[in-house]
Design a protein that fits this description.
- The chain is built from 4 helices and 3 strands, in the order ααβααββ.
- It has 122 residues and is mainly alpha-helical.
- The protein has one domain.
- A 3-stranded antiparallel sheet has the order 1-2-3, with no helix packed on it.
- The two termini are 34 Å apart.
- Bound molecules: zinc ion.
- The site of zinc ion (ZN) has 8 residues, from loops.
Amino acid sequence: MNEALLDDDGSDDLVEFTPCCPKCRSAHVEPRNLARRFGGAMGAIVGTTGGVAAAVAGAEAGVLGGPIGVLLGAAAGVVIEGIVGGAAGCAAGSRLGDAIDRNILHNCRCRACGHTFGGTSS
Ligand SMILES: [Zn+2]
């Protein structure tokens, strides 16, 4: 009675994860995720740089508190802001890169014949 509701549109979901090579029909296909990796790295750099810049600004404000204030403010600021900024930037960059991978680049590579192709069928 309800069997039609259970599993009738699973076809779309699998294409993205296990595509077959269009050239040799091999299932040994791996995602390249080039933009994703690049985006993550770039995001981490930008985020860390932004965090460090904020920390430097904090250190400059710390001048009012004397040399010890500068040192403490800069050290704590670089560590905390750098880590937080880097992690946030990496996550944002990875997400952006993932979208680029899926929509623009040939994101899949066949391990059998080396052919690269887009993972999504449209
Ligand atoms: Zn192939």
